[in-house]
């Protein structure tokens, strides 16, 4: 039985990760929820059943982290760290770690521990989740069908009714506010260039906008893809237009750098009675047996946040000494294995 510690378990994403670890691992996991708020953490542990315990962790207190990870097999970090303190301690204690932070500024800090992780025969997984995470896994599957890859488009169609945490909201706004770059050079502002791509089971064409996404740098380099573009948009044209105006006027930059981002909650209304379906499309243009072809892989999910939790929980089964070092999910496993472990009839992956 694996002992799995979840740091950030009381957040929206953290609670979903807790539930998915118990669902996917079943009786193979003993869950430990970590929180600096003792009563809140104990109540969460109690609500999750007999397979769950509570452990006090304060990220500003190194000793509390060391104590918490001492007897566990895997640590999932479902909140944001400025520095990879948890990763450093996990490697020292030979404990596998999975992190959902989507930014390369953090991932590059973790990569500095790669050789140490190899020596300790431990996995430290970075950029876990849906987008990034599953997106790179799907790119890996898609490009394997081609003898030569000419271009890859990776697009996420989001839902304005998504139940997202403050950190997730700010992270996505920060991503779309960045300029699109190539080889480290500015090319044009992000969220301005448009493209229509197929989404969903009916291959409905939707307009998305190009963004800078930190996952691209790693996927392009490690999979040898020279032309690659990341796109996103929401299921509401009005919402897309509002974001575009905020970006063009400079207000979006002010929003993502505000001191108290919790104020954003007043502008977000999640309606539990309505769906929050999201879609991921990977479209590849390339050559197969000398003939140029275009193929698309389209994934549908009831919730992007829930799928982030599902992917992260599934990776608990994949981590091990045979994949030691600082690694990305696509270096650890493949999309078919992850979806098999998730085993949800509500998630579909179609190839066109």
Summarize the structure.
It is built from 14 helices and 16 strands. It has 352 residues and is α/β, with parallel strands linked by helices. It has 2 domains: 2-129 and 305-344, Rossmann fold; 130-304, Dihydrodipicolinate Reductase, domain 2.
Question: What does this 3D model show about the protein?
Answer:
Residues 4-106 form the Saccharopine dehydrogenase NADP binding domain. This is Saccharopine dehydrogenase NADP binding domain-containing protein. It holds the Pfam family Sacchrp_dh_NADP. The protein starts with a strand and ends with a strand. The protein folds into two domains: 2-129 and 305-344, Rossmann fold; 130-304, Dihydrodipicolinate Reductase, domain 2. 46% of the residues are buried. The mean pLDDT is 93. It contains 14 helices and 16 strands. The longest helix is centred in the last third of the chain and has 15 residues, at 304-318. It has helices at 12-25, 38-47, 62-69, 85-92, 104-111, 114-120, 130-143, 166-177, 214-223, 237-248, 251-256, 304-318, 329-332, 335-342; strands at 2-7, 29-35, 52-56, 74-77, 96-99, 123-125, 148-158, 180-182, 185-188, 194-199, 204-211, 228-234, 278-288, 291-301, 325-327, 348-351. Helices cover 39% and strands 28% of the residues.
């Amino acid at each position: 039985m694996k002992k799995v510690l979840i740091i950030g378990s009381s957040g929206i994403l953290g609670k979903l990760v807790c539930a998915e670890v118990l669902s996917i691992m079943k009786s193979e996991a003993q869950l430990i929820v970590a929180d600096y708020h003792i009563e809140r953490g104990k109540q969460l542990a109690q609500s999750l059943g007999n397979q769950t315990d509570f452990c006090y962790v304060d990220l500003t207190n190194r000793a509390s982290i060391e104590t918490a990870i001492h007897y566990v097999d895997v640590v999932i970090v479902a909140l944001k760290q400025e520095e990879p303190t948890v990763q450093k301690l996990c490697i020292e204690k030979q404990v596998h770690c999975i992190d959902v932070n989507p930014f390369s500024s953090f991932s590059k800090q973790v990569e500095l521990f790669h050789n140490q992780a190899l020596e300790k025969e431990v996995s430290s997984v970075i950029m876990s989740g849906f987008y990034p995470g599953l997106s790179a896994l799907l790119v890996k599957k898609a490009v394997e069908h081609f003898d030569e890859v000419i271009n890859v488009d990776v697009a996420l169609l989001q839902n304005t009714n998504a139940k997202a945490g403050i950190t997730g909201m700010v992270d996505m706004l920060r991503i779309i506010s960045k300029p699109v770059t190539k080889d480290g050079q500015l090319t044009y502002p992000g969220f301005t260039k448009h493209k229509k791509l197929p989404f969903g089971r009916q291959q409905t064409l939707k307009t998305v906008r190009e963004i800078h996404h930190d996952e691209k740098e790693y996927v392009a380099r490690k999979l040898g893809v020279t032309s690659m573009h990341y796109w996103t948009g929401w299921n509401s044209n009005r919402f897309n237009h509002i974001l575009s105006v905020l970006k063009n006027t400079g207000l979006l930059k002010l929003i993502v750098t505000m001191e108290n981002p919790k104020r954003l909650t007043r502008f977000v209304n999640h309606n539990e009675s309505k769906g929050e379906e999201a879609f991921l499309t990977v479209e590849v243009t390339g050559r197969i047996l000398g003939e140029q072809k275009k193929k698309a892989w389209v994934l549908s999910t009831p919730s992007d946040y829930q799928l982030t939790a599902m992917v992260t929980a599934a990776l608990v089964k994949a981590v091990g000494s045979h994949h030691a070092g600082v690694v990305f999910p696509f270096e650890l496993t493949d999309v078919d294995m992850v979806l098999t472990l998730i085993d949800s009839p509500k998630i579909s992956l179609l190839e066109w």
